[in-house]
């Protein structure tokens, strides 16, 4: 619901405390919405009833209705909107998640460090960690216990902090460059009064003198620092002439008076661009697989579920300890080294270096698991070799036959 979208910002030394309080208030507002539990809108025509009675498949599990199945009308408890016919058992398990995902780009790398203490201690509720190391977290979840209806608190709202970099693992600058400007709807709505030329200045990653700002007083300066101070000791680089010119244009066109005002605009465009990028990513994923990545921690978890949904397969768990140990003993790590890839192509589509006197060559990159390979230099493995799903008994050992193409 775009009418519920809002942007807020605050500048001050207590900004983290302000941020945590805003999240706390957001959780309580969201809880009010969840507690509405709207009744389902009644069917208004015989056609709707006929479609419900004639439906052959549950819209949730997508499996057919059997004669003995109890079918019900599934609806959204937040809006009252009818969603489709469903098995009664599916309908009972199809409940709302009391989770608000909070996305940071590079949460695991740095951004979590300066908020985690306030998140943990500012209000009542436990913190669940999903760690990579003692200092880096894939995600952490704060339970807002004061939103619970029951004494146990299991139905309380939860703030789940997730790293968008775990889905889109490149810089915000590159992600923005990949997205068509017609899809920048969120930032457009916040700057709807701008003409096309001014708006274009905000549709690229901003430039900021991070290391120059070493005190709050610096935010009161009334001009941009020189280009040499737009440097980074992490990358040992200074802002390019083009990037510095962009910062100068933004300062001038938006009539900025202080570095604090410039910082406010820089942060606002950063947040709104990330929102547009991730919302477009969500739309694409939902359209393709009908699964929302906002409810996952990392991209591999999402793609695993997408595979299960798309293929419809069901795995049988290994319960034989001997089989488990047999599989574990066969696990090997991948190649680990620093390598510099090089390959030279020569074809008519590469105009800059095409040599018609030489044979035409093309490049294609494959990252292939051996068991499923059909192409590249792994092609000697049969395409019939697939990972097992179930019924995996031990087979008697056989001596490999040298005449066979592949011995086991």
TrEMBL record:
Annotated region (Disordered), positions in chain: 389-408
Catalytic activity: DNA(n) + a 2'-deoxyribonucleoside 5'-triphosphate = DNA(n+1) + diphosphate
Residue span, DNA-directed DNA polymerase family B mitochondria/virus domain: 102-355
UniProt-listed Enzyme Commission number(s): 2.7.7.7
Keywords, sorted A to Z: DNA replication, DNA-binding, DNA-directed DNA polymerase, Nucleotidyltransferase, Transferase
Biological process, per Gene Ontology: DNA replication
SUPFAM superfamilies: His-Me finger endonucleases (SSF54060), Ribonuclease H-like (SSF53098)
Catalytic class of the enzyme: transferase
An annotated Gene Ontology molecular function: DNA-directed DNA polymerase activity
Family, similarity comment: Belongs to the DNA polymerase type-B family.
Protein name as catalogued: DNA-directed DNA polymerase
Source taxonomy: Eukaryota, Metazoa, Ecdysozoa, Arthropoda, Hexapoda
């Amino acid at each position: 619901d775009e009418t519920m979208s809002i942007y807020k910002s605050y500048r001050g030394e207590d900004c983290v405390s302000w941020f945590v309080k805003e999240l706390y208030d957001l959780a309580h507002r969201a809880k009010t919405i969840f507690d509405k539990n709207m009744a389902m809108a009644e069917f208004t025509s015989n056609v709707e009833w006929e479609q419900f009675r004639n439906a052959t498949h549950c819209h949730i599990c997508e499996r057919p209705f059997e004669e003995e199945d109890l079918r019900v009308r599934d609806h959204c408890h937040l809006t009252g909107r009818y969603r489709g016919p469903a098995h009664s058992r599916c309908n009972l398990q199809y409940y709302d998640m009391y989770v608000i995902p909070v996305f940071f780009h590079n949460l695991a790398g740095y951004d979590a460090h300066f908020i985690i203490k306030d998140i943990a201690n500012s209000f009542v509720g436990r913190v669940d960690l999903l760690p990579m190391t003692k200092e880096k977290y894939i995600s952490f979840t704060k339970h807002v216990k004061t939103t619970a209806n029951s004494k146990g608190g299991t139905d309380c709202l939860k703030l789940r902090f997730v790293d968008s970099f775990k889905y889109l693992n490149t810089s915000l600058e590159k992600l923005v460059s990949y997205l068509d400007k017609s899809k920048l709807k969120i930032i457009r709505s916040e700057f709807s009064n701008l003409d096309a030329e001014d708006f274009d200045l905000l549709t690229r990653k901003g430039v900021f003198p991070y290391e120059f700002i070493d005190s709050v007083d610096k935010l009161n300066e009334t001009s941009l620092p020189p280009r040499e101070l737009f440097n980074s000791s992490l990358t040992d680089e200074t802002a390019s002439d083009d990037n510095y010119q962009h910062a100068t244009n933004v300062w001038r066109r938006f009539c900025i008076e202080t570095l604090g005002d410039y910082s406010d605009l820089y942060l606002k465009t950063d947040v709104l661009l990330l929102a547009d990028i991730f919302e477009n990513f969500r739309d694409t994923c939902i359209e393709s697989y009908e699964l929302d990545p906002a409810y996952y921690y990392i991209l591999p978890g999402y793609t695993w579920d997408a595979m299960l949904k798309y293929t419809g397969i069901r795995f049988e768990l290994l319960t034989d300890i001997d089989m488990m140990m047999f599989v574990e003993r066969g696990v090997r790590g991948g190649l680990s080294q620093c390598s510099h890839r090089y390959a030279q192509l020569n074809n008519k589509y590469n105009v800059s270096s095409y040599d018609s006197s030489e044979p035409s060559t093309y490049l294609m990159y494959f990252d292939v698991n051996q068991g499923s390979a059909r192409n590249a230099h792994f092609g000697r493995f049969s395409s019939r070799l697939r990972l097992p799903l179930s019924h995996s008994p031990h087979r008697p050992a056989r001596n490999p036959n040298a005449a066979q193409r592949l011995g086991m």
